[in-house]
Amino acid sequence: MTNHAQPIKIAILAMGGEGGGVLADWIVDMGEANGYVAQTTSVPGVAQRTGATIYYVELYPLARAEADGGRPVLALMPLPGDVDVVLASELMEAGRAVQRGLVTPDRTTLVASTHRVFSIAEKSALGDGRVDSTQLLAHAARAAKRFIRFDMAEAAEASGSVISAVLFGALAGSGVLPFSRAQFEATIARGGVGVKPSLQAFGAAFERTQRGDDGETPPAPVAARPAPQPRHPAVRALVERVQRDFPAAAQDLLLEGVRRLIDYQDTDYAGLYLDRMAAVAALPDGAERRLLRETARHLALWMSYEDTARVAALKTRATRFERVRGEARVQPGQVLAINEYMHPRLQEICETLPGGLGRWLMNSTLPRRIVERLTQHGRVVRTSSLRGYLMLRTVAAMKRWRRATTRYADENRRIEQWLARIAATAHGNPELAVELAQCQRLVKGYSDTHARGLRNYDTVMHAVERAGMALAPATLRELRDAALADEHGHKLQAALARHALA
Question: What's the predicted TM-score (pTM) here?
Answer without folding.
Answer: 0.72
